[in-house]
Fold this sequence. Notes:
Blueprint: H1 5-12, H2 17-24, E1 27-29, H3 42-58, H4 68-77, H5 82-109, H6 118-140, H7 145-158, H8 165-173, H9 182-212, E2 229-231, H10 232-257, H11 282-290, H12 293-320, H13 326-347
Antiparallel strand pairs: 1-2
Helix pairs in contact: 3-5, 4-5, 5-6, 5-10, 6-7, 6-9, 6-12, 11-12, 11-13
Amino acid sequence: MSFSPLTWIRERVPVGPEQLRELTNEPVPNHLKKWWWCLGGTPAYLFVVQIVTGILLAFYYKPSPQTAYESVRYITEEASFGWFLRGLHKWAATLMVAAVVLHQMRVYFTGAYRKPRELNWLVGMCLLLLTLIVGFTGYSLVYEQLSYWGATVGANITDNVPIVGVYLKQLLLGGEVYNENTLSRFFILHAAVLPVTMAALIALHVTLIRLQGVTEFHFRDEDRKQPAFFNFIPDHLLTELSIGLVLMVLLSVLATVLPAEMGPKADPLSTPEVIKPEWFFYVAFRWLKLFSGTLAVLSMGLIVFLMYAWPFIDARIRKFRPQSEASVWIGIVGALAIIALTVWEASVAH
């Protein structure tokens, strides 16, 4: 009797095409036929790009003050296609931050955080904060002048957190100040701890979506005669694949036209006249300039806490005022404040 690899696999994994189709082919609400409602998968695509390009870059990167800058320079200027991989990694990080922020805003303004989806909102908030921290640690690994002093300023801000701040700073830097152990700690956080944590949270996020289903929305221009749902495969899958293709083209263009460049090497003895963080920290940087250290940190912490707790706050508001849309107006004010602070910080030299 001839050996058949396919038969051998089926005997040990008794799952056929029909079972797989039934497992994955969940009904999808009709509003997801519009591609702009399908952006939840965008951060996941970009996360995969980050993982793949990050692994390739890690083959050459050396996380120490003596070797970090030179290893990044070698990747950028000498390694085959190193400039392209570094550009993909940089732009995927930028777009991922933007995609996570926009996705969280979409969930907020459509009320998709309400019962029974409060837990998934908390998971999404964790993913948002982790995405920002990944961006901060990755920016610091280049060991350029701005990234070095940006990491130093970030650690000093952490020191202003009451009670635990001093311990968080020591944990981040591996000491009281930036030292020989700091870069390796940033690298471990950026390349191992944070990605693994994010992967676990993404898995939980998707699981909760599968269990609870996607929030349904109905619009005036809908054809009521059509079914309220359609199959994930092939319609929605093709939409997601199309978005992924567009993202890959966009990343390739950005990495080629606007490649990642090398700034001056870090000099611990020379403080630059202008210290600018990455654009997604402009809001926090401007906020810190408006208030004193501890007050700024406490007020930012309060804002983050309110963002986490908002599903429960909104539920209390709607309990007493069932038709209240206070969340929309609060969200508009918050979005305008974020835009204003970002533009303000981007437009000034100091």
